[in-house]
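Dear H.,

Thanks for agreeing to be a second pair of eyes. The structure we're designing against is below in token form, covering all 338 positions.
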């Protein structure tokens, strides 16, 4: 009998990991939350109790050697993504890994090679590819509705007030963990084109007192593609009006726009003017996309056919991030072949 559900184990029971676990436990019909791993065992146990999951461990080998585990969903800190992914692939487990897949190109290449050897799915958490508006826009572009893409834009503005500690955030986070979403989006929307030039500007405008520490919280990036298109990606850690994720592609025949900072398609009016409710949490604005990407991962395990972004996609997005870092460091545009 063909297996109908994939047994998945969450690796990393923090905020995003907990959201993935809830989707697996309560939303998906092709996946089962088989277990939870976290080095902080009390946190893993608390989440397991909440979700009705009994297999809780702080020993990674318990998962790797368990014959009933089909795959893992990795939501650990970014610096561990590549090594954990490679470890599980080498033990025959399918891997879904949150972005970034690694912090060096060599790490991602080694992990992709492990996936090829194991012949197991290796999917990266670029969730905008699963949002309905972004999917519809991609279809319009592929159908030629807007003609030849000429100018593209993608932005990520985190909701304010920003409460992070800039002295504990790794340097270049804005490129490694924030804008990497926008880079993947632009590559995906302008498919079959290579990035030949990257120029980046960045500063600490939200917390200027932390700039000497290496903190950056605002960035604007321009990309030039070999098909002539020019793209802009921008990020800001503190948009006081809400969580703002949008994109657009202007072509020779028209334009597509994706994303909306407004929660409902509703505006209220009173004596003080007009007002819209806005998004404040990433897991709310992309609630369907977060579920869809894990559903696709489980389906890849069950069918052997991966449809989600893979190691090559992760490699390209990270290559742009690294070119941005070089551009900011040198003050120059960086010639690339991404």
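And this is the sequence the design step returned. I haven't edited it by hand at all.
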């Amino acid at each position: 009998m063909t297996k109908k559900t994939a047994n998945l184990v969450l690796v990393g029971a923090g905020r995003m990991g907990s959201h993935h676990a809830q989707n697996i436990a309560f939303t998906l019909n092709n996946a089962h939350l088989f277990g939870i791993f976290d080095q902080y065992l009390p946190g893993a146990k608390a989440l397991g109790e909440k979700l009705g999951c009994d297999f809780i461990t702080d020993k990674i080998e318990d998962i790797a050697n368990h014959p009933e585990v089909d795959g893992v969903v990795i939501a650990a800190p970014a610096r561990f993504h590549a090594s954990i992914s490679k470890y599980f692939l080498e033990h025959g487990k399918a891997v879904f890994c949150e972005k970034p897949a690694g912090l060096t190109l060599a790490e991602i290449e080694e992990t992709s090679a492990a996936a090829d050897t194991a012949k197991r799915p290796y999917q990266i958490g670029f969730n905008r590819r699963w949002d309905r508006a972004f999917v519809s826009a991609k279809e319009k572009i592929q159908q030629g509705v807007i003609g030849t893409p000429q100018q593209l834009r993608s932005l990520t503005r985190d909701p304010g007030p920003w409460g992070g500690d800039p002295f504990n955030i790794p340097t270049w986070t804005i490129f490694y963990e924030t804008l990497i979403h926008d880079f993947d989006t632009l590559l995906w929307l302008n498919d079959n084109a290579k990035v030949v030039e990257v120029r980046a500007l960045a500063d600490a405008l939200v917390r200027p007192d932390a700039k000497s520490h290496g903190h950056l919280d605002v960035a604007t990036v321009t990309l030039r593609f070999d098909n002539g298109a020019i793209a802009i990606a921008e990020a800001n850690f503190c948009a006081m009006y809400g969580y703002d994720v949008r994109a657009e592609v202007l072509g020779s025949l028209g334009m597509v726009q994706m994303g909306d900072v407004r929660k409902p398609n509703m505006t209220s009016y009173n004596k003080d003017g007009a007002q819209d409710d806005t998004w404040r949490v990433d897991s709310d604005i992309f609630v369907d996309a977060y579920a869809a990407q894990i559903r696709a991962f489980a389906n890849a395990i069950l069918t052997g056919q991966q449809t989600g972004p893979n190691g090559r996609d992760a490699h390209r997005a990270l290559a742009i991030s690294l070119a941005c870092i070089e551009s900011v460091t040198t003050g120059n545009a960086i010639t690339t072949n991404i």
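Two observations from my side: The chain has two domains: 6-128+289-315, 131-282+317-335. DSSP finds ten helices and 15 strands in the chain.

Warmly,
E.
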